[in-house]
Amino acid sequence: MKTFNDLEFNNHPMGNGIQAVLNIKPDTIVSVIAGEGFYSNSKKGNRKTVSKVEDVFSFEVGIKRNNDENWEVVGWQSREDINALLSIICK
User: Fold this and answer.
1) In terms of DSSP bridges, do strands 45-46 and 56-65 run parallel, antiparallel, or are they unpaired?
2) Tally of domains within the chain
3) Dist CA 57 CA 80 (whole Å)
4) 4: which residues sit within 8 A by CB, 6+ positions away?
5) Which of 20, 21, 18, 65 is nearest to 40 (CA)?
6) pTM greater than 0.85
7) Spatial contact of 9 and 18, defined as CB atoms under 8 Å apart
8) Exposed, middle or buried: residue 25 (CB in 10 Å: 0-12, 13-18, 19+)?
9) Which residues of the chain have pLDDT under 50?
10) Number of other residues whose CB lies within 10 A of the CB of residue 35
11) Which residue range(s) make up the domain with 82?
């Protein structure tokens, strides 16, 4: 089973935060982001720019299923919350 620790964070394409993308199944993608304008919280504050995962307290998580164009988005998720989500999605 995948956990938060399996996520590899890089700079977000918009340049104002970080992002990790995990392909769970052929039809399920999970994106975990944090930074300016995202539903996240860091040492700098709510929805502020971040560059290191260590500085983030909560993250925005997007889930895309079945090649649908829409993302299911939930904000302010802790590492434990993300582990719980992944345990459900990875079943």
Assistant:
1) unpaired
2) 1
3) 11
4) 32, 79, 82, 83, 86
5) 18
6) yes
7) yes
8) exposed
9) none
10) 24
11) 4-89
